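FYI - complex with 2-acetamido-2-deoxy-beta-D-glucopyranose, inputs then prediction.
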Amino acid sequence: MGHWVFLIFAALFSFTSTQFIPPYTEECRTDMYPPNGPTFRGAVSWYTVDLDLPPTKRWTALITNKKTDLVNMIQAIKDLADAFVPSGRLIELVDISLPLVVDTLPNPFKDEIKGIAEVSGIPLGEVVLFNIFYEVFTVCTSIVAEDDKGNLIHGRNLDFGLFLGWDVKNKSWIISEKLKPLVVNLDFKRSNQTIFKSTNFAGYVGMLTGIKPHIFTLTMNERFSLNGGYIGILEWILGQRDGMWMSFLTRSVLENANSYEEAKSRLAQTKLLAPAYFILGGNRTGQGCIITRSRLLSIDVLEIDVKLGRWYVLETNYDHWKEPLFLDDRRTPAMKCMNHTTQTNISLKTMYDVLSTKPVLNKLTTYTTLMQVSEGRLESYIRDCPNPCMPW
Ligand SMILES: *[C@@H]1O[C@H](CO)[C@@H](O)[C@H](O)[C@H]1NC(C)=O
Ligand SMILES: *[C@@H]1O[C@H](CO)[C@@H](O)[C@H](O)[C@H]1NC(C)=O
Ligand SMILES: *[C@@H]1O[C@H](CO)[C@@H](O)[C@H](O)[C@H]1NC(C)=O
Ligand SMILES: *[C@@H]1O[C@H](CO)[C@@H](O)[C@H](O)[C@H]1NC(C)=O
Ligand SMILES: *[C@@H]1O[C@H](CO)[C@@H](O)[C@H](O)[C@H]1NC(C)=O
């Protein structure tokens, strides 16, 4: 329900306060790769996170480097909070109550968040807020596809910042813009060996996009739902803590699961704080699925089935058996372009074309990540959506 309200409000807002002009959609893009031109803001830099270090020390190098961008981002969130609830009361609440929440988080997340607060000098409650944020406002597109040789390819656009303040002058979302400098690629190592890799936001300890090289690839999309939604997060803050944060689960699966099947069963069976979609790719033919989750259990698993002609699975933010909200149909254009590409021609290159086609690419898109499990490859690009462009 929250999503509907956001969308309608955002629609009214952008139609009345900007001279927003269609087209909302365009022909399927081609030859966008290697990334170039006005939809490509820049490359994403790599950092190593050493899992052999104590959790409080793991993020020191990255946060030292990204401190200014992180402080800017948190200031933007505070400005927005002040705009909604004047006189700083909301942030006061965050500074007082969220530090108490941090001690309820499981490790290593608790200590990692504390370490980030210490290195950045940002109050602990605000770092917690930043980490909760992504569990709440993420709209995305994720695709796992199998080419005609049985290679699995996984791509995603991460769209973030819906409703969090529209910059009328720049025709952009304030938070999405502030987030772009925080996009990083991370190489998590133990004993100097890569365990998994991810595209992340500096300061965030959960995972939305990642690869366990040669084994599986994983992305998470938000699922908006009446029965669940943000209630679980509220319950956690208020003291009832029997579910897992969604992006902590994805991180734990990337770190600890050693096969597609193991990842799939943990993602399907672990109790969560809020509903979610997990999009998982494996390393063998047929290993690609969308797991539609309620807080308690897996409601549905849609798998690649080449014999049935289903050579890819694609998820935005709506249950695949239902129509998407008419105001927010990124699924049909994305599927149209996938169908147009054909299984014979799918590759990281052509998947980037699909993810570069409006409105799959929109004003909320902060990054595009492409992963090829057989090569252990993860690459990501910071995106822009030049006008005219759909706000979401
Ligand atoms: C708007 O865009 C201008 C120029 O592109 C930039 O200097 C300015 O910082 C932007 N404002 C915000 C709030 O992002
Ligand atoms: C870690 O591995 C890299 C190459 O993969 C090597 O250059 C470096 O010396 C290794 N470091 C240690 C401490 O073993
Ligand atoms: C695929 O994953 C399995 C674990 O599920 C692993 O044993 C196997 O070596 C992997 N195959 C390749 C080609 O890496
Ligand atoms: C794409 O192809 C699939 C499988 O043939 C079909 O079910 C779906 O309706 C097509 N979608 C679009 C938007 O062309
Ligand atoms: C697949 O790619 C080849 C080479 O780029 C091209 O000639 C062919 O038309 C493409 N097929 C489809 C169905 O797009």
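The two ends are 17 Å apart (CA to CA). Residues 40-49+138-173+182-383 form a domain with the Penicillin V Acylase; Chain A fold (CATH 3.60.60.10).
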